[in-house]
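Data availability (excerpt). The following record was deposited with the supplementary files.
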Amino acid sequence: MKIKVLLVEDDINLGMVISDHLQTNGYDVTIADDGAEGLVKFNSSVFHLCILDVMLPKLDGFSVAKDIRKTNTEVPILFLTAKSMTEDKIMGFESGGDDYLTKPFSVEELQLRVKSLLKRVKLDTYEAPPKRVMIGNFEYDLENQSLTRNDSKKVLTKKEAQILNLLYKYKNQVITREIILKAVWGQDDYFVGRSLDVFITKLRKYFKDDSRIIISNLHGVGFKFEIPE
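Predicted structure:
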């Protein structure tokens, strides 16, 4: 299995240097250049390691780490920063970081930190996400983002699929609005909140032919995707 690394760095040149080095050493690297995009990409795939710059546009690295920790407490997080103050390091660890690398640094030092963090990752416990799952009477094709029931097929939009993936991941549990909004849009405000409500209404409509499937709204909290086991 190739180790997947999420790199969130707004300095394009530095990002390319780090990415090229990691890829040369056999890692599969996904790059984002702002915190919001990084959070969306993290929730769209499975990663074994996150490398986050601290000073990022839209959402800083500490905030990204805090949001990652709401859904994943295991993935190692390495911070990159131009700051070396003790207060910043403490803030990094308190936000869920595992290690801290101060700029400028050598790619050799980065490689050593990456190898050290990956020692705690049990690759054999990482299962590839299923390509198809049953949701009541519907077959959900995650790869092609489609819902099929009998001879009827509905192809979902990217955001519909992202929301459904999260609802399914937390099926029969409560998932907060904040987690969905940050995971899909990278932000949590009134306007994207209204968009989320529209998408939830659409998903309810898609599943209406199976009365056992319920997307309930817990006012002020989030949603519960109730499906038959």
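Summary of structural features: The mean pLDDT is 91.
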